[in-house]
Write a sequence for this structure.
């Protein structure tokens, strides 16, 4: 990567940097910005906030109304659709308890990611192919296009709802506390980027993150559905494995490759080139870096998950895996002692034996 990569202007598209160039260039630019900011401090932050943050009481009221609306919509769909569907499928009790949560998230993230995809690839916005363009022609208090404002209202209110839902509605997992922190940081990024008119980069961030949630919930639903009604369904087992592989690959590609090289380079380097005195430069980038660290944290879970899948050939939610694996191991040991002839072999007549129980096998 040549040293003049960061000098491209609005008329040309910059090539995407590599990791080493990102780290060296971003650290140099940020260190230089810190040294040049002789008046940085609480007083300057307060003055910058008052001068550049634009959000109305109507927008705040809409946020709380929509957050409440998402909660009611989820309750309504859970009671009228997801829970009856779980009973109709005759899911195992533990799967029936978790299925509505995954179904709800799959519906929402599919809708939100589809809309972000439409904005980035089917309109005149060039943010994905030319990330530095997110700061071209930036002005304090500039108007937000209606299509982007709608995306922000949908996403912001949903994450406001999700903070409540993680504590009071979702199944509690070993990383639920981290998930609450994630939702708070995401909501802060959404509100902050909207108020300071960094909405262009916000759409890019949302696009790069929502696709993984679609794949995660799709995979979990197929895990729940593969053993239902006393039978084993091969199709759902195959789909869950395919979803798991796809989830692992796209997590790295979207969150650990495109996110830092497209978004962080634009916010750390290109932002100062387009707007030399851009407001809250360090705070905004600190939030994005925290989001990257959480992505790395969860990727470590994914690596552990893949290793265990290769060992035991079982797909499950990585956050639930360690809690349930101990119980499975004990049950397998008990079954092996009870029947040395092999309860885990295929039963005659196209049946499947799981945990010592013969079940009908379906496609």
């Amino acid at each position: 990567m040549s040293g003049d990569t960061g000098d491209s202007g609005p008329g040309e598209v910059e090539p995407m940097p590599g990791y080493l160039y990102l780290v060296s260039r971003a650290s140099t630019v940020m260190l230089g910005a810190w040294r040049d900011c002789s008046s940085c401090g609480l007083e300057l932050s307060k003055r910058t906030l008052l001068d550049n943050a634009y959000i109305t009481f109507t927008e705040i009221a809409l946020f709380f109304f929509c957050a409440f609306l998402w909660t009611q919509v989820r309750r309504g769909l859970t009671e009228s659709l997801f829970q009856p569907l779980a009973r109709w499928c005759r899911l195992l009790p533990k799967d029936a308890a978790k299925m509505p949560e995954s179904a709800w998230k799959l519906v929402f993230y599919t809708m939100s990611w589809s809309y972000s995809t439409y904005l980035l690839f089917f309109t005149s916005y060039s943010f994905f192919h030319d990330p530095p363009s997110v700061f071209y022609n930036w002005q304090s208090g500039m108007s937000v296009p209606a299509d982007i404002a709608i995306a922000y209202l949908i996403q912001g209110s949903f994450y406001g709802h999700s903070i409540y839902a993680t504590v009071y509605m979702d199944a509690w997992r070993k990383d639920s506390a981290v998930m609450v922190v994630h939702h708070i940081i995401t909501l802060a990024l959404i509100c902050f980027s909207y108020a300071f008119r960094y909405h262009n980069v916000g759409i890019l961030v949302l696009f790069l993150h929502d696709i993984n949630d679609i794949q995660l919930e799709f995979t979990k639903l197929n895990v729940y559905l593969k053993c239902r009604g006393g039978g084993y369904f091969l199709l759902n087992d195959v789909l869950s494995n395919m979803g798991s592989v796809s989830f692992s690959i796209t997590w790295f590609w979207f969150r650990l490759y495109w996110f830092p090289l497209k978004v962080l380079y634009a916010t750390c380097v290109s932002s100062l080139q387009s707007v030399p005195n851009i407001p809250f430069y360090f705070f905004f980038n600190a939030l994005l870096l925290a989001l990257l660290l959480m992505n790395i944290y969860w990727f470590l879970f994914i690596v552990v998950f893949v290793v265990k899948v290769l060992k035991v050939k079982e797909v499950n939610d990585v956050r639930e895996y360690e809690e349930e694996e101990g119980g499975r191991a004990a049950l397998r040991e008990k079954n092996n002692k009870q029947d040395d002839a092999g309860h885990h072999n295929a039963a005659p007549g196209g049946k499947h034996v799981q945990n010592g129980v013969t079940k009908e096998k379906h496609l």
